[in-house]
Specification:
The protein is of the alpha/beta class and 200 residues long. It has helices at residues 20-29, 37-42, 48-57, 69-77, 80-103, 117-120, 136-147, 151-158, 181-199; strands at residues 8-14, 34-36, 62-63, 66-67, 109-113, 128-133, 173-176. The chain is built from nine helices and seven strands. The chain has a five-stranded parallel β-sheet with strand order 2-5-1-6-7, with helices on both faces. It has a two-stranded antiparallel ribbon with strand order 3-4. β3 and β4 form a beta hairpin. α3 packs antiparallel against α5 (80-103).
Length: 200
């Protein structure tokens, strides 16, 4: 998907509630262009092919031709097979749109927030990967505040993701979100400086 080999594409990933979006805002404050898979995903059903493929696969999640996102989310989060079907429809389109957007951005380094990077098998599309880690208790609290979900619903969603607690990501950069905002910012600045210094 990457067209310009002079650009360096860096993915930021991690489990739900790990603090990926906060890390991305900090990277943006450092002056680097950032892109979000979630932002693209929010509009992905405006894509005609994605809309029709989703309607065909999940007709009960549409009300008079309008996608009911909550119905769709509830359907796929409790069924691994259905989730795989949806991801097969949406993920390639999301990644394609992200890379097209990246080509228009200035600068050498582009940072992408990709929540399901490893689940989708997209890690090889990037020049470097940052994994944000956070203990499960703080993740649950963050998701509860953000999305208004109870602990059972949160754990159901977390359990559908890669188990970041048990996986070691050799060759990737890990940021541990285990302190306050200032501590995290210091880590992010250090990591960004280290990565860009290595690539230059």
């Amino acid at each position: 998907m990457k067209q310009n080999n002079e650009k360096i594409y860096i993915a930021v990933t991690g489990g739900m509630g790990s603090g990926k979006s906060t890390v991305m805002r900090m990277i943006a404050e450092c002056g680097y262009p950032t892109l979000s898979a979630d932002e693209v995903a929010h509009h992905i059903y405006e894509d005609e092919k994605v809309y029709h493929d989703t309607l065909s696969a999940f007709p009960s999640c549409f009300d008079n031709g309008v996608l009911n996102r909550k119905k769709l989310a509830d359907t796929v989060f409790i069924d691994q097979n259905k989730r795989s079907v949806l991801e097969g429809i949406t993920h390639p389109a999301i990644m394609q749109k992200l890379f097209l957007q990246a080509e228009t951005l200035p600068g050498k380094y582009i940072f992408f927030e990709i929540p399901l990077l490893f689940e989708g098998g997209y890690q090889n599309l990037f020049d470097h990967i940052i994994v944000v880690m956070r203990d499960i208790e703080h993740r649950i609290k963050a998701i509860s505040v953000r999305d208004g979900l109870n602990e059972g619903d949160i754990m159901a969603r977390i359990n559908n993701q890669v188990d970041y607690e048990k996986n070691l990501y050799s060759g990737h950069t890990v940021i541990y979100n285990d302190g306050d905002f200032a501590a995290l910012y210091k880590k992010v600045v250090g990591v960004v400086h280290e990565i860009t210094a290595q690539k230059d």
